[in-house]
Write a structure and sequence with these properties.
Helix content is 31%, strand content 20%. The chain has 744 residues and is α+β, with helices and mostly antiparallel strands. Strands 16-17-20-19-18-21-22 form a seven-stranded mixed sheet, with helices on both faces. The chain has a six-stranded mixed sheet with strand order 8-9-13-12-11-10, covered by helices on one side. Helix 5 crosses helix 19 and helix 6 packs parallel to helix 7. The protein is globular. This is Protein FAR1-RELATED SEQUENCE. Pfam families: FAR1, MULE, SWIM. GO terms for molecular function: zinc ion binding.
Length: 744
């Protein structure tokens, strides 16, 4: 047989020319900045051919995502000996990076040709990849009666009329070779729904001779709704031996009208096509629930493929690179040997590693004290990210953030978030938080409701702000002022509803889908509805900083991840130790001669006492008037001197000295407000009742077992608290002794 030689062109297309290469074949395979490709797959293919000629192998390296829609904006292809995760790797620096331009083309913008190892013989590194065009089929769009036995992805009814220019696809009955062919896809082809597009591409694939998988989906950064989807050849990628990196795909994009349009398409395959394929008559449950949430939800797609008549379950795609698992597991095992309280868990799906969760003993101990309010921080989604790193964060007795757990999220689906929350719940002695601050995606909302029933879910501010900018861009300044006043200054539900409806009618916004949705979810983001829930005083109208700041985020590479994680964590804990020291050794100046001030200085941490002291001083500017009294109940109106609008109602009961104020500061922050303190002054109450001094704000919060033993917690919870307290105390003594020993 003649030797087959391949010639590579800059666009990544491999051509055979009578078994020989043109004279300029090698020169056309030289790397150069500015070299352009139709897709990232073509760039990888070209680099693979170049590597074969030079004498090395390649791997797919890091990818970077767009800040706006999460799509891949650049990719690195590296020498197979890059990194040090395996003994065979030498940290080779050779690579190319391709970046996506606005035109959709991919251009090489960075190159490193030098290797730090010996190169093999040219041509031995890999086998060439030949591109083959699919068989040509007649362009005809057929529409036949719906077959009840074949229901695709949600049992869609295709019998109704379609809007002009929108395809109304139905499953075609094939009659052997004599059957009609499915119309060829083309850019601009429209569908009523993403389900119809998927059904069409499935039928086209059957007719052409390949199978289909659901690839990437892209979401709006404002509300998380799906904006585009990719359907790819089943041989796309290299995660399985049967896959050959086929670049064929069809991408659909959602239009403003709600229909879907093909906006990107590649028909060429790099493998042989079957003349006839067996259509998948059965689909997994998840693929039938190919849900599109208008409000912005996450979906999990778990397709099944037919193999000899049997349904094979395919694992959901993971956003975590394979290299991460081995490095993290090695780190976890090392930490577990040093810290008996270290916990980690890996989600396994169909034999593949997926999401990862871990927390050391200190984080678990902190959760027993400060796990009543948690922030689930997925801010990696705001920008390009290499790894989907998320954190569980609490607020300690100094109002400092404390780490309550870390995670890598393989897939932003309800199943992934549910597994993650359940794992956190199990690791943290099964303590339910009172409230959680997390993104508003449907998948997260569903997971929170399932794992933490009764926990109040408050939406993260960044998503709301982004969506406001998108929806209000064309609105006048007057609307924005009225909107802000409605949201942040409404004092009662009646006032809020009246002002909201007036605003909607005045500016003709009844058909605004996002505003309708946000009104339905008002209890999760409007300050009026959040004031009565405990959030440890975390401000409603402000974004909170990531626990690790810029030291560790979704763009941190694998090589520096563990070291940056430990450095950032130690820095935060050192800050906490300093505040502990200040609270026990420093005393704030008293501003009054009130016994109540001395009591709180003795009990509260320095930070919390300053908050209380400010409220106490402010109370001197208010006037309290009794308006009602019957039996043990009395009511007061407390208003600021000279300001009739700044007033609140305080209700007091002589039974257990219980009190509540309409400002709800104690319910939200756990510190009594100036209005209540004014009433206490009128009633000559000289010390705060014990129920209004939260254990979590006290100086000895770390050792608050005894003071909370009478708060109604179960014996099992009390035992868990005691175990963690003893363990943490012992660890501190060991660390202290170790430090003294090292100095000696």
């Amino acid at each position: 047989m003649n030797t087959m030689v391949v010639k590579a062109y800059p666009l990544g297309v491999a051509h055979m020319i009578n078994g020989n290469v043109d004279d300029d074949g090698e020169s056309r395979m030289e790397l150069a900045v500015g070299l352009e490709f139709d897709s990232a797959d073509e760039a990888r293919e070209f680099y693979g051919l170049y590597a074969m000629r030079v004498g090395f192998k390649i791997r797919t390296g890091q990818l970077y995502r767009s800040r706006t829609d999460g799509s891949v904006s650049s990719r690195r292809f590296v020498c197979s000996k890059e990194g040090f995760q395996l003994n065979s790797r030498t940290g080779c620096p050779a690579f190319i990076r391709v970046q996506r331009r606005d035109s959709g083309k991919w251009v090489i913008d960075q190159i490193q040709k030098d290797h730090n190892h010996e190169l093999g013989t040219a041509g031995e590194s890999s086998s060439p990849i030949l591109l083959q065009k699919p068989p040509v089929v007649t362009k005809s769009l057929v529409e036949v009666l719906h077959r009840p036995k074949v229901k695709l992805l949600g049992q869609i009814d295709y019998g109704g009329p379609s809007p002009s220019g929108v395809i109304n696809f139905k499953r075609q009955k094939r009659g052997g070779d004599g059957g009609q062919s499915i119309a060829q896809p083309y850019i601009g082809l429209e569908f009523n729904t993403a389900n119809e597009a998927y059904a069409y591409y499935q039928a086209y694939a059957e007719d052409t001779g390949f199978r289909v998988r659901i690839g990437q989906l892209f979401r709006s950064k404002n509300d998380g709704s799906i904006t585009s989807r990719r359907f790819v050849c089943s041989k796309e990628g290299f995660q399985h031996p049967s896959r050959v990196g086929c670049g064929a795909f069809m991408r659909i994009k959602r239009k403003d009208s709600g229909s879907w349009m093909v906006d990107r398409l590649r028909k060429d395959h790099n493998h042989d096509l079957e003349m006839h394929t067996v259509y998948q008559k059965k689909l997994s449950t998840a693929s039938k629930k190919f849900i599109e949430e208008e409000a912005g939800g996450m979906v999990s797609v778990d397709l099944g493929e037919m193999n000899n008549g049997k349904l094979i379950r395919r694992s959901r795609e993971s956003k975590i690179g394979n290299d991460w698992y081995s490095v993290l597991l090695e780190y976890f095992q090392t930490r577990q040997a040093e810290d008996t309280g270290f916990f980690y868990s890996v989600e396994v799906d169909n034999g593949s590693c997926r999401s990862v969760f871990w927390a050391d003993g200190r984080s678990r101990f902190s959760c027993s004290q400060f796990g009543d309010v948690i922030i689930f921080d997925t801010s990696y989604r705001k920008s390009n990210y290499v790894v989907p790193y998320a954190t569980f964060v609490g607020l300690n007795h100094h109002k400092q953030p404390v780490l309550l757990g870390s995670a890598l999220i393989a897939n932003e689906s309800k199943e992934s978030f549910t597994w993650l929350f359940q794992t956190w719940f199990r690791a943290m002695s099964r303590g339910h938080p009172k409230s959680i601050i997390a993104d508003q995606d449907i998948a997260i909302q569903q997971a929170v409701a399932e794992v933490f029933p009764g926990t109040h879910h408050r939406f993260s501010l960044w998503q709301i702000r982004a969506k406001e900018q998108e929806n209000f861009r064309s609105m006048p300044i007057e609307f924005k002022h009225e909107y802000e006043k409605c949201i942040y200054q409404s004092q009662t539900t009646v006032e809020f509803n009246t002002t909201w409806n007036s605003l909607i009618n005045k500016y003709s916004l009844k058909e605004n889908v996002w505003l309708k949705y946000m009104y339905e979810k008002r209890e999760s983001w409007v300050p009026l509805y959040l004031r009565g829930k405990f959030f440890a005083g975390i401000p409603i109208g402000q974004s909170f900083e990531s626990f690790f700041g810029t030291q560790l985020d979704g763009q941190t590479p694998l090589r520096g991840f563990v070291s940056r994680y430990e450095q950032g964590l130690e820095q935060r804990r050192e800050e906490e130790r300093k505040e502990d020291l200040n609270s026990f050794n420093l005393q704030a100046f008293l501003q009054t001669k009130e016994p109540i001030e001395e009591q709180c200085r003795r009990l509260y941490t320095f930070t919390i006492f300053k908050i209380f002291q400010d409220e106490l001083l402010q109370s001197y500017s208010y006037i309290g008037i009794k308006t009602y009294e019957e039996g043990t109940i009395s009511r007061y109106v407390v208003r600021r001197s000279g300001n009739e609008n700044d007033k609140h109602a305080v209700t007091f009961s002589t039974i257990n000295l219980s009190v509540n104020c309409s400002c709800q500061m104690f319910e939200f922050e756990g510190v009594l407000c100036r209005h209540v303190l004014k009433v206490f002054k009128l009633l000559d109450i000289r010390e705060l009742p014990s129920q209004y001094i939260l254990c979590r704000w006290m100086r000895n919060a770390e050792y608050r077992i005894l003071c909370c033993a009478e708060s109604g917690i179960s014996s099992q919870e009390l035992k868990a608290f005691m175990v963690w307290s003893l363990r943490e105390t012992a660890c501190k003594y060991v660390e202290c002794g170790d430090g003294i020993y090292r100095k000696i």
